[in-house]
From TrEMBL:
GO molecular function terms listed in the Swiss-Prot or TrEMBL record: chromatin binding
Domain of life where this protein originates: Eukaryota
GO biological process: termination of RNA polymerase I transcription
Sections of the chain in a coiled coil: none
Domain Myb-like: 172-254
GO CC entries: nucleolus
Name of the protein described by the UniProt record: TTF1 factor
UniProt source species: Glareola pratincola
InterPro entries xrefs: Homeodomain-like_sf (IPR009057), SANT/Myb (IPR001005), TTF1-like (IPR053078)
Length: 348
């Protein structure tokens, strides 16, 4: 029954009581037995970004299911509504061969998240470049006709659901795209301060003793300053900027404050920071960027936010590693260590 399902799922998904009853029923059928099996193996249920290993497992699961059923493409399997003439046959094959179980095999995550990830990976509409001015106007018209029915709009525009939803949320706001004014920057800082204070109060900061509270707030401030902030809410508070702009600007503001206005990636300091970054990532010997403790890496580079270091690493790999898109994370690090590091050290 529903209460039992909530109670059992809560061990694996602490926020399960905030999920709708219909979703909980689906999770009880699709996920609970898998979660218990993973627990026996000592494997925790995961959330957040998918690792390269998990992406590869999804590809493997999809390929095997296509072989078993004879369905001729991942797109037909995952976007069946695009093929109305084959829809009945594909749905019957998915039911007969237990598509839910097969797709989630070997991946300790809720089935729904695995399904969404698979759709993103195999959607031929997902990587179509920038929106033209004409496409933006068409998107506005479709939204006026169909509201937030992103599935319908995505089919009409041959773009992914996520793409059209995010683009509309961007263009519907009267966002500025030029330099930030002093007033806008102050609004951003006040908005971030408000959401951090709200979070501290929600986590029970007021119930601590004065000495514990002081120590707790120092720790929370350091973490909360740039991790998992509600950027949509912050963007709404600023009013004149899209949420991604707010996130990027806040990283810049925070970096300037933490480094007292100095730029750790300029001149000789910049060379040394890149050297430290490559060496530290190589020492970690991780297979995927999701496994990197970016907080630790940022301390090796200087007192800067983790988002700043991640952005600098991205620029480094794009500018220095040929065909980096086709390489694994560990291959990128090895290339930087073996080919780029000696050059940087010589320049230094």
């Amino acid at each position: 029954d529903l209460d039992t399902a909530k109670q059992e799922l809560e061990e694996f998904i602490p926020h399960v009581r905030n999920i709708s009853d219909s979703s909980i029923r689906k999770m009880a059928g699709r996920d609970l037995a898998r979660f218990k099996q993973f627990k026996k193996q000592g494997i925790a249920v995961k959330f957040g970004r998918f690792s390269q290993k998990e992406n590869n497992q999804i590809r493997k699961n999809i390929e095997e299911f296509l072989l078993i059923t004879g369905i001729d493409s991942a797109e037909k399997l995952l976007f069946t509504s695009r093929y109305p003439e084959d829809k009945e046959t594909i749905n019957r094959l998915k039911a007969d061969h237990l598509f839910c179980e097969k797709l989630s095999e070997g991946i300790p995550r809720p089935w729904r998240l695995i399904y969404y990830r698979a759709r993103k990976m195999f959607d031929s509409h997902n990587y179509k470049g920038r929106y033209s001015t004409e496409e933006k106007e068409i998107l506005k018209k479709y939204h006026a006709l169909h509201g937030n029915n992103w599935k319908k709009i995505s089919e009409l525009m041959s773009r992914s659901n996520l793409s059209v939803a995010m683009k509309y949320s961007e263009i519907k706001s009267a966002a500025n795209y030029g330099p930030w004014s002093k007033e806008e920057t102050q609004k951003l800082m006040r908005a971030v301060e408000e959401v951090i204070k709200k979070r501290i109060e929600k986590e029970g900061g007021n119930s601590l003793s004065s000495s514990d509270k002081s120590h707790r707030e120092i720790l929370i401030d350091r973490e909360a300053l740039y991790q998992k902030l509600p950027w949509t809410e912050i963007g709404d508070k600023v009013g004149t900027r899209y949420w991604r702009q707010c996130k990027q600007k806040w990283t810049t503001v925070l970096t300037n404050k933490m480094t007292k206005g100095q730029q750790p990636y300029r001149g000789t300091k910049g060379l040394q920071a890149k050297i430290n970054l490559i060496k530290r990532l190589h020492e970690m010997k991780v297979e995927d960027d999701n496994e990197v403790d970016w907080e630790e890496v940022s301390s090796a580079v200087g007192d800067v936010p983790r988002a700043y270091v991640q952005a600098k690493f991205y620029k480094l790999k794009v500018s220095c590693v040929p065909s980096w898109q086709k390489k694994t994370f560990s291959e990128i690090i090895d290339y930087l260590f073996e080919e780029k590091l000696p050059e940087l050290e010589e320049n230094l």
